UniProtKB/TrEMBL annotation:
GO molecular function list: carbohydrate binding; hydrolase activity, acting on glycosyl bonds
Residues spanning the signal sequence: 1-22
Summary of subunit composition and partner proteins: Monomer.
Reported cofactor(s): Ca(2+)
Lineage of the species this protein comes from: Bacteria, Pseudomonadati, Bacteroidota, Bacteroidia, Bacteroidales
Limits of the Glycosyl-hydrolase 97 N-terminal domain: 28-280
Domain of life: Bacteria
Annotated ranges, domain Glycosyl-hydrolase 97 C-terminal oligomerisation: 562-657
Annotated protein name in UniProt: Glycoside hydrolase family 97 protein
Amino acid sequence: MTEKKKLLVLCVALFCFIAVSAQQRMSVSSPDGKLRFSLKVTPESVSYDIDYRKQSLIANSLLGFSFDSGEFGRNLKAGKVQRKKIDETYKLIVGKTSSVRSRCNEMTVPMQERSDSGRLINLVVRAFDDGIAFRYEFPEQKAWDSYVMYDERTQFNLQGNPMALLMYLPGYVNTHEGVYSHVRYDKVARKRLIEMPATFEFDNGVAVAITEAAIRDYAGMYLVKEKGGLVGKLSPKLGQEKIKVETDSFPHRTPWRVISVADRVGGLLETNILTSLNEPCRIEDTSWIKPCRTTFTWWNGNVVPDSTFSPGNNFDTNKYYIDFAARNGLDAHGIYGYAETPWYYDDNFNFGWAGPNADVTKPIPCLNMPRIVEYARSKGVGIHLWVHWRPLYDKLEEAFALYEGWGVRGLMVDFMDRNDQEMIRIQEEILECAARHRLFIQFHGSSKPSGLVRTYPNEFTREGTLNYEVCKWDTLVNADHDIAIPFTRMLAGATDYHLGGFRALPRSEFKIQYVNPHVMSTRCHMLAMYVVLENHLTSLCDTPKAYEGQPGFEVLRTVPGTWDEIRVPLARMNEHVTVARRSGSDWWVGSLNNGTERDLKLELDFLSEGDYQATIYTDAEDVERNPNNLDRQVRKVTRKDIIELNLAKDGGALLHIRRL
């Protein structure tokens, strides 16, 4: 080798040595060692990888920010890594399980600029057996104590070409409702907002869901597919596009970016990772927080039978539904108003757009609210009020004090339609104030939950999904849409879905009607939804006449609103799912099907030893002609039994299993 060649080799080696030495690499693995998060810090960038059982799921995904004070993500050095093991057990007042073991390994990496400004951001990573979560923390520091954020540049570069189940949205101000697309990852549309959670299933069965946890004093995130993969996009401040998040003091922190991982898609439904990433309960006395089952008369059109009074904003209409609730052991009756007129004064006469002088403390006189409240109290029935968020927020403390005095159980707070930083703050203020006045909250027209039910268990449910209200004006919601929800929106938490339609028609005969609406799924499908979907506010949205004396109504009267344990024995993404939930010693099993008939074999090995009595509801033989028909069978079972479930198209099944 000539001297010239030797010198060239030496230069190349020296360059490689310098390049490698400039890199900083660190990683953290899950307690079982199957899931690993790897971080790489170079002078040019900060990036991460996620591997599951040595399979690359996410690779070379960049991290960083864009602030008014400049970009953050280049020319960084990683400080001393801090590590700790977390292994704790906590209780959920309402949730998919009553007791949760949170077990993970945590790594905190200080990332500081090498420039004179020396801005410092900590990256905190937690590796659970069923997912990876990371967030950014802004500690107190001398040279930097506030920011205006233009973008959070967090990437999720999925590897391979998994099947994707996701929903596109038209813009940042939206109802968070839409249909789902089930396509290969390479067919996912570019430059369109994608709602989270978004779910991906690899050909070997490994499933991944991307979402966020503990969204507080920060903007909600969406995904957008760009050339390099998926990129997080924050919801901007209302009225402009550039500013996403502002804070005038440190410490501050972002929500957790969550990548749930399971070796089967049903495993994604069993995780409690979102609540584990939230703070403990902030409400000292939680004895009043109990799941609630309520009427929701807006859906059916406030229908009353032929009588001496007309339906409307009056005492007699509400008395009719209060009597129904009292007869059937329901906890509350929902009052929203009638037609386009709320129950309170609103000079706009439009539910969606509150007038400038709308006042949620002034019931309209014809309603006779004091008489309604007193009558409901005499019957042991609570009141559940609908309100538009804006006039409520104008008089938050005054309104909640008034409602507490009336004996109101909780509220549906509607038409929020945003998840920018301001709206996220407003939602938490509503929960805090409601807790002081012993009120539960149901957010409607709202963004997805993020596990905050651990901190504020008075948040019973949220909408954020296209649901059965649509049957009043469109045909978009059917069994094929329903089956997407457990694998997407429900992964974020309790899901308000306007359940309870007991007037089913076959798809070919379905007709749209605003009053007394129909549904396109079978009665058993509807019953199964009450178990498959997590929801701590059980809705009975149809009329008393549609329910009383009808097969399956006993399920709606008795199905629990919170649970001790969850198992998902059968699931195939976007086709069918079977969810088993335990309450005490009882098990409830809901099996939900899409528009294709199928047979399933359900093993009862989730039961403990001993004898049980199973009440089994299945689609009747003539269900294609009359989807309201069902078969009810009672039999003795043990954990060794296998139940054959013959699911009709648009159908389902429900089991209530009691220990003998």
